[in-house]
Design brief:
The chain has 535 residues and is of the alpha+beta class. The protein folds into three domains: 9-132, 2-Layer Sandwich (Phosphorylase Kinase, domain 1), CATH 3.30.200; 139-323, Transferase(Phosphotransferase), domain 1, CATH 1.10.510; 390-445 and 457-533, no CATH class. Helix content is 37%, strand content 14%. It has 14 helices and 14 strands. It has helices at residues 76-101, 105-110, 139-146, 151-170, 240-255, 267-273, 280-289, 301-307, 312-325, 353-389, 391-394, 478-499, 505-513, 520-533; strands at 9-11, 15-25, 28-39, 42-53, 59-61, 69-71, 117-123, 126-132, 173-174, 183-186, 194-197, 204-205, 440-441, 444-445. The strands form five sheets. The chain has a six-stranded antiparallel beta sheet with strand order 1-2-3-4-8-7, covered by helices on one side. It has a two-stranded antiparallel ribbon with strand order 5-6. A two-stranded antiparallel sheet has the order 9-12. α4 (151-170) runs antiparallel to α5 (240-255) and α4 (151-170) packs antiparallel against α8. The termini are far apart.
């Protein structure tokens, strides 16, 4: 509708006559044109491809000449911004091609497999650039015609294109639209076909600091060939968007089908879809290049090329050489595309065994620290609480009212008898309890603990039925004898409880059962002890 009519004349360095429309997109049209050029003073008619900037969403043709591009005044800022980008990218491609031509005749012919751009000029209110016309068809045309390619054939096409993309990246240019449709064959009689990268309509340029210099913010998306991050305008130079498209293009050549969209691609999908005869190295290179997350993806086009080394053609040559040397060799050498034991193919998941060992070691350390901490907290509590818990089983204090046996005073091992209220008073005082004897019971012997000022007690094998009169207590008075025994038991129990930490309920109950039977001074001590522990 808006394309130039056949026979339209475009004037740049040469006069170009439009013959047909080769392609069209949102940003313009591509035409096949013819021109007469001079070769050693001989005019030769040849064909070129011309790209015209035409923003179809905003522009139209002048109804008078059907050639001039026009647009509404309100759209002028946006149209001019896109046109400046179009012109700048064309001029940059011209410089890149001039750089190649300086490298020699071979570089000038292959042109790093980037379609050569000859000139850029303005006409008809818009901009054009002239490039080589490639008539060999695209990679998509070949796959649709002949089916999926062998690994060796596919690599022969993708390697030079990856090299061309690496060359663009050296000039801070991202193509942003690599796919089978934009790789076209240069066919020259008597020479093998050469794949060439075309269509720089949405390419981006960045300065030496990695900042974007292309003004337009529109980004094109091709499902299956554009990574997830390309849905948003790229603000910094990042080759990994083009690397993803290279891996997706190789996937298409090997399978004959477009890959799924980037949101659906994962390693399981790629491994299950690629043909079984594809080498593990090529398979791993595609998986690495098509990682959904940029951080896990092949960093550069050169890295992608490196990961494709030693595959189909190299393996065939190696196997042939091994077959010739087989009689002299003791053991056949492994194919070069197979990884050597102890190494890992780039992009292939690393073994998890070292990680498991480290996790176990860390877990053991953590458990050990927790056990030590628990022991430091709970063992002291258990030690402090044990005498109170076992008091009813291990206590040797006689029950109240028991007049047949005397009770040995209780002292703490290693602690000297004190003169405070916590210990038994000296026998020289009038208020001291009667001196106990050591009874001989059926289950064993108990030895009384003597104060330092008394003589050692001797064992007695006869049962003592009444206390001795060595504490100034008149023998024969039951009240005095009962009070003295209660005082002795209470003092012993108080001494034991004060040395053992917080008493249990049973201890406090036993102590207070003696309260009404003891002398006033001992009762006061019991009341102080109750007040201390809130009983």
């Amino acid at each position: 509708m808006y394309e130039l009519a056949k026979g339209t004349l475009l004037v740049g360095k040469n006069k170009y006559v439009v013959e047909e429309v080769l392609g069209q997109g949102s940003f313009g049209f591509t035409y096949v044109v013819s021109a007469m050029i001079m070769t050693q003073n001989i005019p030769v008619k040849t064909r070129f491809a011309v790209k015209e900037f035409f923003l179809r969403s905003h522009c139209m043709r002048d109804p008078d000449d059907h050639c001039t591009m026009t647009y509404a005044a309100v759209a002028e800022p946006e149209v001019q911004r896109f046109q400046r980008d179009f012109r700048t990218e064309a001029q940059r491609l011209v410089k890149i091609c001039e750089t190649n031509r300086k490298l020699g005749s071979e570089a000038a012919f292959t042109n790093h497999h980037i379609v050569p751009v000859n000139e850029c000029f303005d006409a008809n209110g818009t901009s054009y650039f002239v490039m080589e016309y490639l008539s060999g068809g695209s990679l998509r045309n070949r796959v649709e015609r002949d089916g999926a390619m062998s690994e060796e054939n596919a690599l022969s096409y993708i390697r030079p294109i990856a090299d061309a993309v690496a060359f663009l990246h050296e000039h801070r240019v991202l193509h942003m639209d690599i796919k089978p449709d934009n790789i076209v064959m240069r066919s020259v009689e008597g020479m093998p076909d050469v794949p060439m990268l075309i269509d720089f309509g949405i390419s981006l340029h960045f300065d030496d600091k990695g900042l974007r210099t292309t003004l337009s913010s529109t980004s094109g998306l091709t499902p299956g060939y554009s990574p997830l991050e390309q849905s948003q305008p790229l603000k910094a130079f990042d080759p990994r968007a083009d690397v993803y498209a290279l891996g997706a293009t190789l996937f298409f050549l090997l399978t004959g089908n477009d890959p799924a969209s980037a949101a659906e691609v994962n390693e399981t999908y790629l491994r299950s879809t690629l043909p079984a005869d594809v080498s593990e190295r090529t398979r791993a290179a595609i998986i690495h290049a098509m990682q959904p997350l940029r951080a896990h993806r092949t960093p550069t086009a050169n890295d992608f090329l490196h990961e494709l080394e030693d595959t189909a053609t190299d393996t065939a040559a190696t196997n042939s050489k091994q077959a010739q040397d087989a009689p002299a060799a003791k053991k056949p050498k492994p194919a070069q595309h197979e990884p050597v034991q102890g190494t890992r193919i780039v992009g292939e998941p690393a073994t998890r065994k070292p990680l498991k060992i480290n996790v176990k070691l860390i877990a053991a350390i953590v458990v050990g620290v927790c056990l030590v901490a628990a022991a430091a907290i709970f063992i002291p509590r258990w030690v402090n609480s044990r005498p109170a818990a076992d008091i009813e089983q291990k206590d040797s204090i006689a029950a109240p009212g028991d007049t047949t046996t005397s009770v040995a005073p209780v002292t703490i091992p290693g602690q000297q008898p004190a003169t405070t209220d916590n210990t038994l008073p000296d026998n020289n005082t009038k208020t001291a309890p009667p001196k106990p004897e050591t009874p001989n019971t059926e289950t064993g012997k108990q030895q009384a603990v003597k104060p330092e000022t008394t003589k050692p007690a001797t064992d007695s094998k006869t049962e003592v039925k009444k206390p001795e009169n060595d504490n100034n207590i008149e023998v024969g008075k039951p009240e005095a004898t009962a009070t003295a025994q209660a005082d002795q038991q209470a003092r012993a129990l108080l001494s034991k409880l004060q040395a053992g930490g917080q008493p249990s309920g049973a201890d406090m109950k036993r102590l207070n059962s003696l309260r009404d039977k003891v002398s006033p001074d001992v009762r006061a001590r019991i009341d102080q002890f109750n007040e201390k522990w809130g009983y």
